[in-house]
Amino acid sequence: MVDGNTNSSSIVISLAGHLDLNSLHDLSRTCRQFRANLLQCRKQLIARSLRCSKEDEDRSSTLADRLREARLAWRTNGGSSYAGRITSGKVGKCARDFVAECRKCGTVVCRNCTAKPPPSLETALKSRHRRLCRTCIKAPLSQHTSPRTLQHNECAAFSPTSSPSSSPARLHRFPTPTAVPVHAQVEVEETFTASAFQRDSCKCPDIFWLCQDCGRGLRPADLDYSRGWTWRKSYSTYLGGLGTGIGEGSEGVQCGRDGACLAAKIVEKEVDCDADALRAMEEEAEKIASQGTGRNWQGTSFEIQEIDGIGGVVKKKIKRLIPVGANVIENEDERDGSRAYLDREVRGEVRSWCSWPDVSMPFYPLLLRLSSALVPLTIALTTYLYFYPFFHNCYFPIPPESTHHVFDNCTFDDHVLANHYANRQAAPFRLLALGDPQLEGDTSLPSAPKYHFPGLKQLGQWLRSGRPFLVLDGLQSGLHDVVNDIWRGLEYTRKQIDLFGNDYYLAHQYRALHWHTAPTHVTVLGDLLGSQWIGDEEFESRSIRFWHRVFKGASLVPKGLLKEYAAPTFVRAEWQTGDDESKYYREKTVEVLGASPGWANRIINVVGNHDIGYAGDIDENRISRFEKQFGPVNGDIHFTLPLQQCNLSHPPLFPPVLRLIVLNTMNLDSPAFEAKLQQRTYKFINSLIDTSSPVGDDTTATILLTHIPLHKEQGTCVDSPLFTYFPHDEGGGIKEQNMISKDMSKQAILHGVFGKNLDPFAPAGGMGRAGIILTGHDHEGCDVYHYGFKNNTEWYASKWDGKEAKEARADGDVPGIREVTVRSMMGEFGGHAGLISAWFDLEKGKWEIEVGGCDLGVQHWWWAVHVTDFIAVIIWIVTAITWFVEVKMDPQFLQKMKKWIKEKIEEEQERMGGRVRGMMDMKMDMGGYNPGVRRKPHGSL
Q1: In 148-302, where do the E strands start and end?
Q2: 671 prior amide bond cis, ω within 30
Q3: pLDDT tens across 234-260, in order?
Q4: The pTM is what?
Q5: How crowded is the C-beta side of 504, counted as CA atoms within 13 Å?
Q6: Regarding predicted confidence, which is higher, 889 or 111?
Q7: Is residue 870 a part of any domain in this protein?
């Protein structure tokens, strides 16, 4: 903080020498205290602020200076009458408000002494690019941006002795007392900030700040460079010409870094030299020979030749060895003219060099261009992925318009009910059905690599045993172990990543569909996990993944809502006398549809074969752990429509009821491993029949949720009827099945649960109860219609859209029911989900149930989008860092940071070394420690 005393004033005044008036003004506006402190030294600051180096020069004072400027202007503009703004020179007195260093040489100049940018700056900017050779392109940027140590001018450089010329010439040779390497470098005095600008990248589009000396030759140099490419194109062998560089050892355009090219070669070159330059060189040579001071030309061995030209004119040339950059590549599309020369450099596709301030083109424009190209791609892909239900037109089936006005004259006391039925176009019951997620775990992982490398250990033993003839075999065995273990490790890691991504792929389906379609209920139709053989610990681990990763935010159905039966409670009917049979008492669970909004976030889980096994291997422990984590294996609930709160002209006699049943069909068929568990399923089905509405009552519809599909003939769906059994010594139970047996499909499901009967004298003509069956298990999915004809014993199944099924549905005297096997939600099967809508049609007096679907696509799409997003984010971060480093950050900051890190490492090493030495001294003091003597253990002889 500046307080006005002598020390503070001297510091401020010394700092003012590096700031112009604008910078001082900006500094004063940052803080009121700064302004007050700076005002105390106002006169000194104004007098000592940064000044232009040409402030004391008057270039128009002599005729020679004016002629020299005119000659330079003529060279620059090709003889035109107007010199152009880029070389217009000083326009007035030196300014004080805008003073800065030249971005090429570091000379401090003001805005009046700078080379003015050309009128068409955008066009001129394209011509400043220089193509780099392969070596310079691949080299780190730090090798290009190191401070220069060589001075380049037209007549002074280093060169070893060249051979005498065969042409008649008078030869003068500079003295070379000692031999010095050809590549000896000469330190040149530079300004303090020159290295900073050399480390900086090109900012010509934003900042064109060059002194007049650096800015005079820009336009002719760019023109000559572009003509070089045009000349190559005109005389190229591709067009039938002789080719460029014919007869020379190398042909092509020189690297844009010229002599500073990292792959430069030393070649001999003759250059013209005027008398002034020659005289200066001779004076420097005499000084170094006599006094040992001056410019060090030792070892450069210049050769000066006076050559008689036409008309007796004597020209002086200097033959010297100079570094020449390597040849750059010429692309094929540039040869045939399909693409302009240097178009890649202009577009920022490859690294190039800026010839104006002689710095590297910034790398961030290429990254910015790449990231900008990725922006629309990533936005499009990510938008499609996360809004795929919208793009795929995924909606629950909508009821017909005749049902939209059912709840218009309803008065709901509960605002939850009012909100549920506010959307007249949406069905009151919307079930999101997902099939077979099959979360895998350690059973699907390959064996984890242990990295023991026994072959390498054996190789070490053989080397120590002195048997070199076995070394080759040991080396081969060791390398084989290394390769195998590394490969197993990569495969193990890949599978872990695959499981991780699969969880989030399934989670994405649930979240996207749940948010977009707004279901009222959600169910998973079995095979929640990938194996029934896993232990309790792995089962719990996969359950945690199910609830906290795949279906994050969802919850288990509260205990008691899906009731099976009250097992210990039974009653005896009054008319039963002496009969030992007891009926299990079962109370219905009834809930108003829409009264509890929590159902939308509850998962109704159905048990599958990969959860508890088939009938031949189900035990009590598997069912218990499943019910603990995912809910009951059997249960049902009744949802009623609140039509009693509506003013209807023709209300139904009974309140419409939608019955939702969860049934364990895994042990429905025999033989079973535990008959007790099978009887439990049978008793539940009997309780369903006892508590069902009368057949023919269309005000009640049943939705059966189970895992194994009903029986179908081969060819109806992808899966065919299949039963396999365990050996007799293992119980002989069912080991695997694709469908429920034909008899159980008819007796337990069609006759029992739905009351379908082919007897024409059965109640309601055998038409049974309305409803639908939703199953899983068959990963490919299937949609069929089960039907049968009166006075017949066979039931048939045909595709829902097939001719037979349509004819059966059209016949009002043919009982039947629809079964939808929901396709698996796994990525291999397209990430399918079923959308089931149910509503009550007052005009028909019955429930209507429609089924839709939605597919996400294979998991590769999910991976591709997220990998693309990840790459794009990385590129954006690298672009931001590169932009900050190249544009905003102090170029010397990295060097300071490297130096600071190096110092800290050295300090830490020194500190650790001192600690180790102290511990060694302590051991020697305590026990006479000698590292060269082995001590015997206590008690040894």
Answers
A1: 169-173, 265-272
A2: yes
A3: 554 444 444 444 334 456 788 888 888
A4: 0.66
A5: 13
A6: 111
A7: no
